[in-house]
Design goal:
With 277 residues, this protein is of the alpha/beta class. The protein contains eight helices and nine strands. α3 packs across α5 and α7 packs across α8. It is elongated and about 70 Å long.
Length: 277
């Protein structure tokens, strides 16, 4: 008697790709899993560190998916040129609008038109600074498309035409957007349910409540003459919670006055107050 194969319950899905896949090696993907599409001149840079640790396991289990799109394949002429000299003169080269547009058109296939559900992001030093709140917003989307810049950047007309959101990791310049893209994806993917396993850990870490994280300790109880604070060994959960909140506030006030002022404004407190722990 022939055994009836088990039926699918709609958890997995497949999608088209520009390159042939090894069907035996391709990991399954949970239906409606969060997706990241990266337009880059260096697709071999992905998944990179995203393939390690918990994000890598989640990728293998299909909790999220990644597609690296090679910008070079959309280039002009025999040499697949993707850039040209800046209008008005100046150093460096600029990514061409027409070339990037072809990659953008490919990337948006099968994605929602609504940018609230599927942001399109250019990683740029002049963009809005990336933070935990932005990571939470991205994690609640269906996915996102990331454009990794190179050289002197990308033609401004492309950013205007495609209503691209510019995002920066901070006030510094990298040689390209690939490292920034991996950081943004990592910060976002870890907020997707089931990726970390213990969702409570994301609620206690830095920035989640507007404060830096409190100090952490583990065994041994005494190391190099330094002891774990007694309150953490007391077994009194209320006192532990009170100590952790106090330490988070103290560290934030000392190290990030900007965060401290925003936290106090949100909670109706005086940023110059001096509370005892």
């Amino acid at each position: 008697m022939t055994e009836t194969p088990p039926k699918s319950h709609g958890r997995l899905t497949i999608s088209p790709s520009m390159k042939p896949r090894d069907l035996m090696a391709e990991p399954p993907r949970v239906k409606n899993a969060w997706r990241a599409k990266i337009i880059t001149l260096f697709p071999e840079a992905f998944p990179g560190v995203l393939d390690m640790s918990l994000t890598g396991k989640a990728l293998d289990h299909g909790l999220w998916a990644l597609e690296a799109i090679d910008l070079r394949t959309f280039g002009e002429g025999r040499h697949r040129n993707v850039d040209d000299t800046p209008a008005g003169g100046g150093a460096g080269m600029v990514l061409r609008a027409d070339v990037v547009a072809r990659a953008m058109d490919h990337a948006r296939q099968g994605t929602p038109v609504d940018r609230a559900r599927w942001p399109v992001i250019y990683l740029s030093p002049r963009g809005k600074k990336f933070d935990q709140e932005m990571a939470r917003r991205f994690a609640q989307c269906d996915g996102l498309t990331l454009l990794c810049g190179r050289f002197e950047g990308v033609d401004e007309r492309l950013l205007e035409e495609y209503a691209v959101e510019e995002v920066s990791l901070g006030d510094f310049v990298l040689t390209g957007g690939e490292i920034a893209a991996q950081a943004l994806i990592d910060a976002t993917v870890r907020l997707i349910p089931r990726v970390l396993g213990n969702q409570a850990s994301t609620e206690e870490e830095s920035f989640s409540a507007g404060l830096l994280e409190f100090p952490q300790y583990t065994k041994p109880a005494v190391w190099m003459g330094r002891a774990i604070p007694d309150v953490l060994l007391s077994g009194n959960h209320a006192n532990v919670a009170r100590w952790r909140t106090g330490m988070a506030e103290r560290l934030t006030k000392e190290r990030r006055p900007d965060l401290w002022r925003a936290y106090c404004a949100a909670h109706g407190r005086d940023p110059d107050e001096d509370r005892e722990l």
